[in-house]
Amino acid sequence: MRRSTLFILALWILLPGSGLASDIALNLEEAERLALTRNRDIRFAQRNIEAAAADTLSAAASPNPILFLTTSHFNPKSRPTTLFRSTPAEDVIRLDKTFERGNKRELRMAMADSELTATRLDFDDMQRHIRLNVRSAWFGLKQAEHHVELSSIIASQSERILELARRRYRAGDLSGADLGRFEADTARAQAGMRTTESALARARTVLAILLADEDHALQMATRGDWPAIMITQPDTDTIHTAIEQRPDTQSASARVEAARHNLELMQAKRTRDVTVSLQFERQPEDVMQPRNSVGMGISIPLFIGNYFEGDIRRAHAELALAEDHLEAIRARIRAEIDQLANELQHASDRWQALQEQALPAARRTAGAAELAFNKGAISALEFLDAQRTLRSSELDTLQARSDLAKARAALDAALETASSKEQEPAL
Questions:
Q1: What is the C-alpha separation between 60 and 179, in angstroms, rounded?
Q2: DSSP tally for the chain: helices H, then strands E
Q3: Do 124 and 421 touch, CB atoms closer than 8 A?
Q4: Of 27, 34, 122, 362, which has fewest CB within 10 angstroms of its CB?
Q5: Residues 6+ apart with CB under 8 A from 91
Q6: pLDDT (tens digit, 9 = 90+) per residue, 194-206?
Q7: CB 135 within 8 A of CB 207
Q8: Could you tell me if residue 390 is left (phi over 0), alpha (psi between -120 and 50 degrees) or otherwise beta?
Q9: What is the C-alpha R_g of the chain?
Q10: Are strands 293-299 and 274-282 parallel, antiparallel or unpaired?
Q11: What angle do CA 395, 396, 398 make, to 5 degrees?
Q12: What pLDDT digit, counting tens, does each position of 99-145 carry?
């Protein structure tokens, strides 16, 4: 833990001041660590934990005693100079202390502890979401970087092919209409490169926001290759464990416990608290003897106008709502895992089909078409169609690789439990 903390601090010290390098290159693990250290949403969640911990102190507090001091029997006809000096007065000192009954303090403490547990689990779930968002943003940036490289290559190839087409046009082997098609295709490639550069800037900004480093947004870059592909579908036991032990499920379960304690607390309101009073009264002295006295009293509320039926009914409704919310989360997690597992399989099938079949075929076709076009064996339209097919296959393959990585990360996050949140997922 100490080494990890020192690594993060050292890395973060170097990043903002890295003026010698144009980019701040991060691998996936470094991006996750920095996000868990710097992300603003995580800091907000930490503040919620601090507030919930403070509520436990308030819940454990008992009612404060109340001290009364009264003086009476002033003579309003006395002169102001002698009002406090010669007027006999009556002084009363009373101390009231309320003693709670019905385990109210214990129930408040139990409810606050459950809320604190739920808030801490909310923090764990926030970390789970941040990790997923960082992975998705890192994969999106990786895709945008490759897209810029691919667009640059396509633009360069288009310019080279346009120059070849112009030479053939000057030699009389190519019509003006065909030359216009090559010029339009080159212009589209140049415009596409500008579009990918804008997408790259947006992807960098998304990652920088997650790392709370907006000042260096346009310097963000990825380091390292795509994660290794491992297509494994979760079994029944894994899904059941995720449903019951994911942080959001446990948080909802803790809030159900808090709602039960709240119901018991509302019912305990019908147990009467007792207030004990101790009083000392000093009266003016007469000729014979002083008339001081000590007294004690007990007060008990009378439940005549309010028997707390509304509070108890509301507590029942809040408990039912918390239980319904817990069941909804369990059902949502099961549906989410099933959907993500299905998306992962489809993303894997699509990427393999493009990587192993469509892209190699498009490359062979484009190479043959270029050779045939150079020899004048095919028309410009046929050549351009082969080039567009190759570009489309390359872009589709890149998109499929990014979708596969995001699908794997989403399924790993859906299966992440409170006990496995420190473990790296198998990608």
A1: 84
A2: 11, 6
A3: yes
A4: 27
A5: 69, 70, 71, 281, 282
A6: 999 999 999 999 9
A7: no
A8: alpha
A9: 38
A10: antiparallel
A11: 65
A12: 999 999 999 999 999 999 999 999 999 999 999 999 999 999 999 99
Q: Are 36 and 4 in contact (CB under 8 A)?
A: no
Three-class SS of residue 141? helix
Token digits for 324?
């319904």
Residue carrying structure tokens 């009293």? 297
User: What is the rounded CA–CA span in Å between residue 332 and residue 337?
Assistant: 9
Dihedral-angle region of residue 274 (phi above 0 means left; psi in -120 to 50 means alpha; beta otherwise): beta
The amino acid that residue 143 corresponds to is Q
Task: Please state, in angstroms and rounded to a whole number, the distance separating the CA atoms of residues 147 and 196.
Answer: 6
For every residue of 302-329, DSSP letters joined together read --SS--SHHHHHHHHHHHHHHHHHHHHH
> Measured between alpha carbons, how far is 207 from 219 in angstroms, rounded to an integer?
11
**Taking the CB of residue 57, how many other CB atoms lie within 10 A of it?**
10
Q: Which two tokens stand for residue 236?
A: 């029944």
The 10s digit of each residue's pLDDT in 375-399 is 778 887 888 888 889 989 999 999 9
Token pair of 20 as six digits: 């010698």
